[in-house]
């Protein structure tokens, strides 16, 4: 148990070993580990990002789907409305047209009736005059009484 | 292992007394560097073992670190990274600065090197003696555990001590360091200067002593117990069985001591260096 030159030799060996480790052993290990740590952290962050992006996309697709459904039902409702509107319109048009035709027909009928009445009246007055003539051949002046007869005929 | 113990020990007992056996196992392969010897002696066994272990351990790690990738690691790299992470975590909890530039690599070196040197205690003492006497003759001496040489532990502790003073001066400046020697921990009043200085002096002396002697004592005691068990194994059949069982038990317990002492030595190194960075 005596202190001797071995002490100095060992101290030098120790110093050289420390230098070797500081210079050649520690840095590459540190670099490898730190790089890997960074890569793992980046990977985890990217995964997290992807997960949140997926969530956003799912939410967005849900909203889009709901919008599309709403729009579709709106379109259907509009189409139904428009359809019934068209039917209503057609019905109204048809009614108006029918009424018009009916009115025309009625007017024509009235006209025909009037014309027939006119004709009948004229014939009735002529017949009456002829009858009266035959009865009252002598007493009745055709010219003097024709105005009165035609008045009578008009009253019929 | 037990039979080897017994054979060699019996052989040793025939040739030597028990005290000679222990003395043989506890003497260094000392090589005088010049005439007077004394201080100028090198423990060849300690030096060769520690340098070889340092080269093997740090070299193996370097081979892995050289090809370290950020991708999927190989099994070797995974293991090295496990050690790296363990050391890095310990340093991170103690030292709050740029640990990667010096302190953490130093902690790694200390831990692995001391661990490797301590582990030499697992080699059966008489196998080592057998191999060495095969090559170097019966009186060749070889101690396999560098950390049971006070020179090794003291060299490590002193290097840390010098680094400690270096970082203290680097961080606080020379003036700041001197100021701290006289003005901490009791205050800046002039009449407490002597007390502060004495306090710091004791701290600076006791740190390397406790640092080195703790490791040395543990490893030396472990080695002595293995030697005593080896001697017991030489006393006959009962001794052989008892020695083998107790030797196995002590080896298993020693795994804990080897790892724990390496860890404590590393932690103290980090704590001392971290303290040097902090002002009082």
TrEMBL record, chain A:
The keyword Transport applies. One of its GO terms (cellular component) is endomembrane system. InterPro entries: ATP_synth_B-like_membr_sf, ATP_synth_b/b'su_bac/chlpt, ATP_synth_F0_bsu_bac, ATP_synthase_B_chain. It comes from the Bacteria. The keyword Cell membrane applies. Keywords: ATP synthesis, Cell inner membrane, Cell membrane, CF(0), Hydrogen ion transport, Ion transport, Membrane, Transmembrane, Transmembrane helix, Transport. Its main location: membrane. Pfam families: ATP-synt_B. It is a single-pass membrane protein. Signal peptide: none annotated. GO terms for molecular function: proton-transporting ATP synthase activity, rotational mechanism; proton-transporting ATPase activity, rotational mechanism. It is found in: Cell membrane; Endomembrane system. The chain crosses the membrane at residues 6-26. Component of the F(0) channel, it forms part of the peripheral stalk, linking F(1) to F(0). The b'-subunit is a diverged and duplicated form of b found in plants and photosynthetic bacteria. F(1)F(0) ATP synthase produces ATP from ADP in the presence of a proton or sodium gradient. F-type ATPases consist of two structural domains, F(1) containing the extramembraneous catalytic core and F(0) containing the membrane proton channel, linked together by a central stalk and a peripheral stalk. During catalysis, ATP synthesis in the catalytic domain of F(1) is coupled via a rotary mechanism of the central stalk subunits to proton translocation. HAMAP family: ATP_synth_b_bprime. Belongs to the ATPase B chain family. F-type ATPases have 2 components, F(1) - the catalytic core - and F(0) - the membrane proton channel. F(1) has five subunits: alpha(3), beta(3), gamma(1), delta(1), epsilon(1). F(0) has four main subunits: a(1), b(2) and c(10-14). The alpha and beta chains form an alternating ring which encloses part of the gamma chain. F(1) is attached to F(0) by a central stalk formed by the gamma and epsilon chains, while a peripheral stalk is formed by the delta and b chains. This is ATP synthase subunit b. It comes from Methylotenera oryzisoli. The gene is atpF.
TrEMBL record, chain B:
Keywords: ATP synthesis, Cell membrane, CF(0), Hydrogen ion transport, Ion transport, Membrane, Transmembrane, Transmembrane helix, Transport. The chain crosses the membrane at residues 47-65, 102-120, 150-169, 224-246, 252-275. It is found in: Cell membrane; Membrane. Pfam families: ATP-synt_A (PF00119). It is a multi-pass membrane protein. GO terms for cellular component: plasma membrane; proton-transporting ATP synthase complex. GO terms for molecular function: proton-transporting ATP synthase activity, rotational mechanism. GO terms for biological process: proton motive force-driven plasma membrane ATP synthesis. Key component of the proton channel; it plays a direct role in the translocation of protons across the membrane. Belongs to the ATPase A chain family. NCBIfam families: ATP_synt_6_or_A, PRK05815.1-1. This is ATP synthase subunit a. It comes from Methylotenera oryzisoli.
